[in-house]
Amino acid sequence: MGLHRSGTSILYKMLGETKKFNILTLYHVINYNQLIYNYVNKIETKKKQELNDLIIKKGIKTRKTDHMVVNSDYPHEYMYIFSELGYSWKINEKNKLLFETLCKKLKYISENNNPILLKNPHDFANFVFIKQNFPNAKFIFIHRNPFEVINSTMRLWETHLKTKNEFLAIYSKSYEKVYDNPLSRMLLRFIYISKIPIGITRVVTSAAKRSMHYLKNIDSLSKEDYVIITYENLCKNPNKVIAEVLDFLKVKSNIDFSKFVKPRNLKLIPKVEFWKNLIKKKMKDYINYLHKISTLE
Predict the structure, then answer these.
(1) pLDDT tens per residue across span 126-182
(2) Number of domains, the chain
């Protein structure tokens, strides 16, 4: 659980590398409606190869937003199963049965007793509802300097809107539809790429709202139900942080994660630098909270 661009993807990938969890992959997202059929008929390998061939054919090597390599086993988010079926991006009353069905499918085809590990930034501020409906759920919260979160989010919008992201288009037909429509593409570029402040204001307001919800409700969880880490600490001491998470989950692994992630000193883009005071104002309480659990410069 974490804000968008807070490090959830690399954390998910690292935990998935332990092979101690059943995670959601690109293959599962693309083939959600056929997962049981493919498993029963022993054609999973074939379908994964077809997906890998498609990725190669399109010349895709990374997910474009960073250097994370992609293939059929790429660790993915369940929000894309929700959105492609017309549901909200986060778990709610209307799609909780779908979420439960997803978990059952993963469990059935996994052929092991490993716990299911999932991630979806849209559910960062939704943990109270999730805990109420799935009492056995455990949470891993990851936090990152909000200036870098906003900076990375704005870069993401620019990446997705300046040129078509062929990898994203593979699993998100809604993105492909929007991008291929000149009017919608032009409107989104105007909002998020031009010099007007509409886009960054929306991003900051959304992040502030979700972080405030986190602060107001985190104490409603039992300390036994969650662990808190920061992206900065994960980069500086990956083995130590992953060991803490695995200890919380009562899992052991001997993998060396020292080369999976490194500290990054990314320069803020001009738009984020200009609106730094807005971020400070909107996310003051969250920034103060992060100072308590980590070291922010």
Answers:
(1) 999 999 999 999 999 999 999 999 999 999 999 999 999 999 999 999 999 999 999
(2) 1
Handedness of CA 199, 201, 202, 204 (dihedral sign): positive
The tokens of 249 are what? 């989950």
- Is 121 within 8 Å of 130 (Cβ atoms)? no
Please give the DSSP secondary-structure letter assigned to residue 268. P
Length of the chain as a residue count = 297
Query: Is 3 domain-assigned?
Result: no
DSSP 224: G
Sorting pLDDT into bands at 50, 70 and 90, what band is 293?
A: confident
**Domain annotation covers residue 2:** no
Q: What is the H or E stretch that residue 80 is in?
A: helix 79-84
> What pLDDT score was predicted for residue 212?
97
Q: How far apart are CA 19 and CA 12, in angstroms?
A: 12
Q: Which two tokens stand for residue 272?
A: 């984020």
Q: Which of 15, 38, 13, 20 lies closest to 109, judged by CA?
A: 38
Query: C-alpha distances in angstroms, 55 versus 27, 71, 169, 266?
Result: 12, 7, 11, 29
All residues at 6 or more sequence positions from 126 whose CB lies less than 8 Å from its CB, including other chains: 90, 91
Token pair 């989104």 in the structure block, residue = 188
Task: Tell me, yes or no, whether 175 lies in a domain.
Answer: yes
CA distance 94 to 81: 14
Q: Smallest Cα–Cα separation from 9: which of 286, 169, 234?
A: 234
The C-alpha atoms of residue 159 and residue 254 are separated, in whole angstroms, by 36
CB 268 within 8 Å of CB 151: yes
Query: What is residue 235's predicted lDDT score, i.e. its pLDDT?
Result: 93
Range of the domain at 65: 8-293
Amino acid making up residue 96: K
